[in-house]
Design a protein that fits this description.
InterPro entries: Rossmann-like_a/b/a_fold (IPR014729), UspA (IPR006016)
Number of helices: 5
Low-confidence stretches: 103-108
CATH class: Alpha Beta
CATH architecture: 3-Layer(aba) Sandwich
Protein name: Nucleotide-binding universal stress UspA family protein
Structural class: alpha/beta
Number of strands: 5
Distance between the termini: 20 Å
CATH superfamily: HUPs
Strand order of the largest sheet: 3-2-1-4-5
Length: 127
């Protein structure tokens, strides 16, 4: 069954990518890697550039399952884009990496993560 990972080019994002690869291999794949780019938002560290996407591809080259890399551009909510991909791919699992940068972040999840946890038709793994 398909595994979707919401990929951001950070240390946490690469940990989520590794966890998603492992899950996809256990479940028989495929693995769909999705980086969402918010239109009109410049210099967002969540947006992967070509070099960062190539590094992610390199991390996945030895995977035993089919890997698809997608960069989705939107003016909408990032969570909605990921939920659409999960439904489109009939994914069994959605993998997310979250940052824990301060005490407040440890206690409160961001709105995007909350929406994904509450709305995903699939299981959700948070790394």
């Amino acid at each position: 069954m398909a595994v979707v990972v919401g990929f951001i080019p950070t240390e946490v994002g690469f940990k989520a990518l590794a966890a998603a690869r492992d899950q996809a291999e256990r479940r028989g794949g495929p693995l769909i890697v999705v980086n969402v780019v918010r239109e009109g938002v410049r210099e967002d560290p969540r947006h992967a550039d070509d070099q960062q996407l190539e590094i992610a591809r390199d991390e996945l080259r030895q995977s035993s399952v089919r890997v698809a890399m997608r960069q989705e551009h939107t003016e909408e909510d990032i969570a909605d884009v990921l939920l659409d991909v999960v439904e489109e791919e009939k994914a069994e699992l959605l993998v997310l990496g979250i940052r824990r940068q301060n005490d407040l972040a440890r206690h409160l999840l961001g709105l995007t993560v909350q929406k994904l946890l509450l709305s995903s038709p699939s299981e959700v793994l948070v790394v």
